[in-house]
Amino acid sequence: MFIDFLALMLINLVAGLLLFAVYFFWFLEEGQKKMAAGFLAVGFIQTVTGLDVIFRWPLPSSYNVGFGEPAVMFGVLFFVLGLALLLEWDLLSLGIVAVLFGAVAVVVGIRMLSLGMTKEPILTFFGYLLSGIVGLAALPGYYLREYPIVRALVALAALGAAVLWAITGYASYWGHLESFAKYKPS
Known about the structure:
Blueprint lengths: L5 H22 L5 H24 L6 H25 L4 H24 L5 H23 L4 H32 L7
Helix pairs in contact: 1-2, 1-3, 1-6, 2-3, 3-4, 4-5, 5-6
């Protein structure tokens, strides 16, 4: 039996994507510091749990790579975005990193689909694909932010990814509670 943080990581990712959608659509120009604490909290949780998965390998097979490494990437991205908003840093370099991390999410999603990983490989693929699109669109979207349609499309991609990960994450909580209902520590 293994203990994992997958459900926590997924619901935390949902929170981060929802925060990003709200930030990108409403707070991109003003009131950015209002969003900093949420990004810092989400980034911290995602980074810590992702690092645990990377170093401890609690999941079966290559799920550790597919879930742990992207969790660290997006966790650090969310955390540093929180710092950047708080300290009023320029977001150019963070946007470049987001594009590269977004590409990783797309690649992981395609590969998990081709390997038939997870109980719902198509849902997982689209979760990774939309998450990757958010990362890929962050930099160009930031520089095209004066167009409401661009802000809306990036926010909608983040909302779509959040919905897909919420379905997976809440299903994981449901299943894990049943799986571990009779678990007793040694």
